[in-house]
Write the structure tokens for this entry.
Amino acid sequence: MKRSYWLILSWVFVLSVAAMIFVFSAQEGAESSQTSSGITQWLLHLLYPRYDQLSPADKNTLLGSWQFALRKAAHFSEFALLGISLKLLFRLLVRQKPSLLAWIVGTLYACTDELHQTVVSDRAGMWQDVCIDSAGVLFGVLAVLLILSLRKRRKKVKHQ
């Protein structure tokens, strides 16, 4: 396919992921907590068949620890997706160090995301989340590099 097609598709991918992150960050604290609590409870019911038989105190303890882990995993995952999209875009746009550029831009977006959360009701920006987000971006960039490397190797073996 034409390079311009891939370029447009890459921009749409980056902007869609950035918009998704922005929307999640714009949720007020109670709404965000309710969303993650619902997902966590669904997951606990799936993984712990006797979850409903636990005492309310045990349920709350389990829910609290799992919800914290789930929220951090969500941070990592959404920024890994951003890293993937940025790497694919910068691979088309720049010749030198597209991976580094993708990681830097993704990390800067993580900083703005945390700043954004400081103005949302019952939310707080945390430098620890910037670190998690930045690691997610790096993971996404490295995943693309690995896949492209494997693809290149496979093509090389196929043509021998």
